Amino acid sequence: MNEAPASSKQLWLRIARWAMAVIVTVFLVRAVADASASFDREQFSLSRIQFSWLVAAGVAYLLGLLPMGLYWHYMLHVLGQRPGLGQTLRAYYVSHLGKYVPGKAMVVLLRMGLLRGGRFDSTLVAVSVFAETLTMMAVGAFLAAGMLAARLADHRGLLLLACGLMVVAGLPTVPPVFRRLIRGLRVHHASPQAAQALDRITLRVIAIGWLCNAIGWLLLAFSLWAVLRALPLAEPLAGFPQLMPRLVASVSLAVVAGFLSLLPGGLGVREWVLNELMIEPFGRVVAVSSAVLLRLVWLLSELLVSIILYMTVRSARQP
User: Of 125, 185, 203, 306, which one's alpha carbon is 20 to 30 angstroms from that of 290?
Assistant: First the structure.
């Protein structure tokens, strides 16, 4: 007697998954088109770009996301969820495509959908996404504020912005504050075991997240350096260690500000921050072009790895 409702539920779940796929695809196409058009306006000849460095930038970006994805996997296990590592990374990388859809709900929905299965608590999966994302943003804002204060203090407006974002994103990652915040959302009504699981998020868990994300942000900064290497610059580019403070501040503040702006992919906000910090040493054309090219490289890298992982890694099965 329960076969009809069950089949109806599966049908609606299948429709919902296809709807999410269509929505993400539409906004991805729009993001690629906008980035390509912006890059064309900067009048850089494609023949003068070193594509090997763009490949290196894409690889560095995907490697930078890896420790962040591993932290999410660790957070899931802390909360009592037990997906395989391949399943977690599959959901993590594919969910990045959701940030190009207005709002940030699609990222959470994609991760929950890709970790579907009766042995996963959807409420705790959502809590883990919330904790992982806040930690990523907090570490990024902290690094941006530190680099700006130590080496780029003349950018006072951006320094104040980084400090403000550090408080907004960092304060909720303090374990007692995070637990109070989640309990204030009354998640225990949706998941009775959520209240007990939240007690496992300790300072040690958050500290591991800060370490993982710090490594990730350094690799994302290297990705920006590789994009600069790909461009036909008038003067030789300094090494990564010499430019690291500016690169880390640029990438981390751009991504965090773009994320908290709630605009799809932080469109416009990321480019503005990168332009402000890159225009002084490299000039306007290189600053704008590197910002647009970085977005295009990251987007295509996300798309490629998502297709590979979606096709090769098996999703969780119903027990």
Answer: 306
What Rg value do the Cα atoms of the chain yield, rounded?
Answer: 20
Residue 100 token pair: 């190009």
- What dihedral angle (degrees, nearest 10) is formed by the CA atoms of 20, 23, 28, 34? -160
pLDDT tens readout for residues 187-211: 656 666 776 788 888 999 999 999 9
Alpha helices in the chain (DSSP H): 3-41, 51-78, 85-95, 105-114, 122-151, 156-170, 175-184, 187-190, 194-198, 203-230, 240-260, 269-282, 284-312
Q: Is residue 243 part of a domain?
A: yes
**Domain contains 19:** no
Q: Which of 120, 115, 118 shows the shortest CA–CA distance to 314? A: 115
> Residue 24, Cβ neighbours under 10 Å: how many?
21
Q: Domain range spanning residue 185?
A: 48-312
pTM higher than 0.90, yes or no?
no
Burial degree of 292 (CB within 10 A; 0-12, 13-18, 19+)? buried
In this structure, is residue 31 part of a structural domain? no
Flag whether pLDDT at 47 surpasses 80: no
- Residue 245's nearest CA partner among 266, 224, 268, 272 is 224
Establish if 236 belongs to a structural domain.
yes
Number of domains the chain contains:
1
203 or 154, which is more confident:
203
How far apart are the C-alpha atoms of 61 and 217, rounded to whole Å? Answer: 9
pLDDT band at 122 (very low <50, low <70, confident <90, very high): confident
Q: What is the dihedral of CA 51, 56, 60, 66, to 10 degrees?
A: 100
End-to-end CA distance of the chain: 21
Are the CB atoms for 249 and 147 separated by under 8 Å?
yes
